[in-house]
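Checked the freezer inventory, then went back to the computational side. Two predictions to log before the end of the day. The first one is the construct we discussed on Monday; recording sequence and tokens without edits.
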Amino acid sequence: MKFVTFKNPDGETRAGLLINDGIVDINKASKGELPSDLLGFLKNQERYLPVVQKMIMTESKPDFMLDEVQLQTPLPNPPSFRDFMSFEKHVANSRAKTNSSVPEQWYQIPVFYFSNHHVIVGPEASVKVPNKTKCLDFELEIACIIGKQGTNIKADEAEDYIFGFSILNDWSARDLQAQEMMVGLGPAKGKDFATSIGPYIITKDEIEKFKSGKGYDLKMTAKINGKQYTNGNWNEIHYSFGEMIERASDSVTLYPGDIIGSGTVGWGCIGELPAEKQRWLQPGDVVELEIEQLGTLKNYIVE
């Protein structure tokens, strides 16, 4: 199943189910049994999913075609957003810029930072260049959506807590990030202004057949103005989402709608390129992130 949040022709923001090129308004199709927002759905998804499955079996007719609505980020109001750093190649590439290697501690624990969950945007949205940066970058990542509340979740039990996945773009102001991290804290202000997620959330059962290693055999690509910058694969991930969830939930409760980011796939950002090949994002640029089965997430850079 593919879940979306969309604005209908009347300007109302609604939760929907994407079927081919049509969208079913789940609240309308269920005659009010299902909520009109995805966070409300996730909070009771074990009760609501059978209702959706029945709708699919009865072949509910779409309320709108895709070109009649405006897709929003599928989860506009997540309770929290933790972003990990789980691809070894990205860490190695980034550390090489300072003539250093991957820290030993990185192999001991999956690490994360908290980002701003109030600045989530979706497909086709514009992203403003932050006031004080000259080095705007994208990051090609996977978002894992938590579907059930839990504390001290073990990695081998974490599948039960995952609702689904989406594409994530962790926009980064590299100059701001470099300056603040010299102090010894995380990349807070360098990541504070926008995160893109979308175009939909695909439930984990839909991609089960692509399981490979600790991830999935699904290609990940990034384009700027139509030119491909990245060609990675989800199965290159070093830490599984189960391991990330175990770390995040240690002595802490995770809630439905919490977002766990994978971190950047190897070569999945401009910052990993050699200095002579770097060209930071500018107003007018179009960034497209694609992950097989998860769709394409397109955004526009503006002043």
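The second is the one RB wanted added to the comparison set:
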Amino acid sequence: MTRASASHSYNTYKKGGQRSPYTNSKEIGIKIADCIEDLMKVFAIRSAVYLSEQDCPYEEEFDGNDFSASHLLGYIGDEPVACMRVRYFADFAKLERFAIRQAYRKSRMAFVMAKAAIELCRMKGYTRIYGHAQDPLVSFWARFGGKPVEPRRELIFSDYRYTEIVIEVEPHPDALKLDSDPYVLIRPEGQWDTPGVLDRSVTRISSHN
């Protein structure tokens, strides 16, 4: 396979207070949660948005699906301000739990995060992406090709009304496949373009040889 570029939109966060060289403003960065600390950040953001702002009951927000998903974290500089959960099914991926801290909603974060999530799904081989959009946000997802599922079904949970949407996308040219480089397939999630610890282990002389 052609190795992915390091500029993939789901892997742009670099710790260290990154700033734009043109405006000196703090830049937006995205990464996939890959440790307990990252998950703590995800849960903190969701707690602030859903439990606090939207009065969502704890057991409805933390629904048992967090350990069967990928989680995207959005940063402005080094401050974690947004998150999204992605779950994977046989022929579609599902975007959910999209949250942005209130103070940062006038930034470009929503657009950057949505594009990153879609690219991640494409990289994993999905061309159909499904989600539940709160009714006022259906027009936001339309900017990325999101269309309401027909026939429309009533969908209400946690005191909000939702619309099912589907985004159809083109296959990613570098999508991961069964015949992809096996070393690429064992790298950390979202870091497929960077040699990992198991790549480096090849150089170690094994006592089992």
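For RB: The chain is about 25% helix and 25% strand. The domain at 28-187 is CATH 3.40.630.30 (Aminopeptidase). Let me know if you want it refolded.
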